[in-house]
Known about the structure:
Elements: E1 3-8, H1 15-25, E2 30-36, H2 47-57, E3 64-69, H3 73-79, E4 84-89, H4 92-108, E5 114-119, H5 129-137, H6 148-162
Parallel strand pairs: 1-2, 1-4, 2-3, 4-5
This protein binds 4'-phosphopantetheine (PNS).
Amino acid sequence: MKRAVYPGSFDPVTFGHLDVIRRASEMFDVLVVSVLNNKVKSPLFSVEERVKILKEATKEIPNVQVDSFSGLLINYAADHNMHVAVRGLRAITDFEYELQIAQTNRKLSKGALDTVFLTTSLEYAYLSSSSVKEIASFGGDISECVPEFVAKLMKEKYRASVL
Ligand code: PNS
């Protein structure tokens, strides 16, 4: 059984991520979308909230599982019998960062973890979780960036932060 991991911050998941998830789910028997528990960043949504959001957003795709992890991706992948990491590439600006991570993971894992890149569909190439958060924080329209229930949750977060 071919299992792959799609790691990321997903704070929050966007239509760009969901496009990658849907396409990658057709390439592997199981795709585990896993939220990095990164103690350094201060996220909008907690890891538990992001896992819940991802579960809801992917509930129609039967071979997608949602999880979270801490520490090195290579250790998490080895522990869960996953030998491929999936990442989305939006533009050339992503490339250097992604290449470095992919090569580091391959080296550190002694070839056990390889990375497959999916180029983001053109209509989502401009999207990033950070820009979606910035737009939402100023009350802008994010209906074309994230699912409706996510937009609602973001609005609630920002409303609560000004009260
Ligand atoms: O969505 P992001 O924040 O761009 O995802 C980055 C992620 C989670 C893929 C990357 O930071 C990661 O895998 N971190 C786990 C720690 C690790 O394994 N680091 C070694 C590679 S440099």
